[in-house]
Specification:
Helix content is 51%, strand content 15%. With 206 residues, the protein is of the alpha/beta class. The protein has 2 domains: 3-140, Response regulator (Rossmann fold, 3-Layer(aba) Sandwich), CATH 3.40.50; 148-202, Winged helix-like DNA-binding domain superfamily/Winged helix DNA-binding domain (Arc Repressor Mutant, subunit A). Strands 2-1-3-4-5-6 form a 6-stranded parallel sheet, sandwiched between helices. The longest helix has 14 residues, at 174-187. It is globular, with a radius of gyration of 17 Å.
């Protein structure tokens, strides 16, 4: 099979050992070639712009921007690039955000490399694959009142980071972050952002 007929894959994961091992395993597939790797959200966007992959395999939680945020940007800038999320933290809220962002695949990190290769092919062909257990959890969790941006910022606030740090990680002004978090807390009837994080996690929305 010629390189031109291969599926061009971008791998984005901030865990270097996992990303390297996955790249090596996917490289054994006759019809796949890993054209770029990234360790952060912004780097994933830059690598996608430079290499124009057919499929971007994105870790959900990365520095700078999470996988869903990256998928949203790629959908706008590179509509021919299919996106899929691989996660070790498959909460229902993540799946709903991902589907809303146009993500075509959503799988846990426990998936084998061979199975991941099959799912990459499925996604490249324009089909969708969602892990059945994650899908069942999402259906049972109810609809989130949070916008994608509110959910993203609550996730960034989950480790107790101050507003200034959250703003830097999200590339937003501190006042904007404060407004989003206040809106999220109000929607969840929470007294502050920390309580809002707990409530959102309990209900599977982040």
């Amino acid at each position: 099979m010629t390189d031109g007929a291969r599926i061009r894959v971008l791998l984005a994961d901030d865990e270097h050992l996992i990303r390297g091992a996955l790249a090596a395993l996917l490289g054994l597939e006759d019809d796949l070639t890993v054209v770029a790797e990234a360790a952060s959200g912004p780097e994933a966007v830059a690598m996608a712009r430079a290499h124009r992959p057919d499929v971007a395999v994105l870790d959900l939680q990365m520095p700078g921007a999470d996988g869903v945020t990256v998928a949203t940007r790629l959908r706008a800038e590179l509509p021919a690039c299919r996106t899929m999320i691989v996660t070790g933290h498959g909460r229902p809220g993540h799946l709903k955000r991902a589907l809303a962002a146009g993500v075509r695949g959503f799988v846990p990190k426990t998936v084998s490399a061979q199975r991941l290769a099959e799912i990459i092919r499925t996604v490249r062909d324009g089909n969708r694959y969602v892990d059945p257990d994650l899908a069942a959890d999402a259906i049972s969790s109810g609809d989130s009142p949070l916008t994608a941006r509110e959910a993203e910022l609550l996730e960034l606030a989950s480790d107790g980071a101050p507003i200034a740090e959250i703003a830097e990680r999200a590339a937003l002004a501190p006042g904007t972050v404060r407004n989003y978090l206040s809106a999220a807390a109000a929607k969840l009837h929470a007294e502050n952002r920390h309580a809002a994080v707990r409530l959102a996690r309990d209900r599977g929305w982040i």
